[in-house]
Design goal:
O-GlcNAcase_cat, TIM Barrel, alpha/beta, 4-stranded parallel sheet, 6 helices, single chain
Length: 204
């Protein structure tokens, strides 16, 4: 029925999206969802070019970066992906994912993401460790990174439209810079406080 896999996928995704009334959040994960799966590259991939052309503009497209589990995300790569998809990607960040090797748990700070990525993203999803309690540092440091990104890209003349919590986050992000080590120390301090609080609860 369809001349290519990409056209088939885009057609089905578009039909479902429209049938659901074009919801504000509708995500599509392409078969080529990272650079290592593209041939020969994201910008020259016939598959991604078709997806970018055929997929309705309101549909978000998931991208994991250079690899399935990407140690680094750069603005240059995201610009290339945005150009071929004709929309900013939604990053599905597998930095902490351990479902492929449950003998390992990742407890380090959120890092390897270049400053200023927020303006290149339609969204960011964090794929965490399978063990719930092991994700305190990943989620806490992601929050610190997010605050620093807000601080670096928020227009000062629109500061009045931010919520009190967001304003506090903006003021707390020192000149928009992010330090993984400082973020880790903040997360560890809060995690110890959380553990101590839970230890005082009855039945713990």
């Amino acid at each position: 029925v369809f001349p290519s896999l990409a056209q088939a996928q885009a057609s089905v995704a578009n039909e479902v999206y429209q049938e659901l009334g074009q919801p504000p959040v509708f995500l599509f994960c392409p078969t080529e969802y990272c650079s290592s799966l593209c041939s020969p590259s994201p910008s020259q991939s016939c598959y991604l070019q078709t997806i970018g052309q055929e997929l309705l503009p309101g549909i978000g497209v998931i991208w994991t970066g250079p690899k399935v589990v990407s140690q680094e995300l750069s603005a240059v790569l995201l610009e290339e992906v945005e150009a071929v998809l004709r929309r900013r990607p939604v990053i599905w960040d597998n930095l902490y994912a351990n479902d492929y090797d449950c003998r390992r748990v990742f407890l380090g700070p959120y890092m390897g993401r270049a400053p200023g990525l927020m303006s290149r993203l339609h969204g960011l999803l964090l794929n965490p460790n399978c063990e719930l309690q092991a994700n305190f540092i990943p989620i806490h440091t992601l929050g610190t990174w997010f605050q620093s990104e807000l601080g670096s890209c928020a227009p000062p003349d629109h500061a009045g439209t931010w919520s009190p919590g967001a304003l506090a986050a903006l003021q707390g992000a020192q000149d928009g810079s992010y330090s993984p080590q400082e973020a880790l120390e903040l997360a560890l301090r809060d995690w110890v406080a959380e553990i101590n609080q839970q230890a005082l609860e009855p039945g713990r």
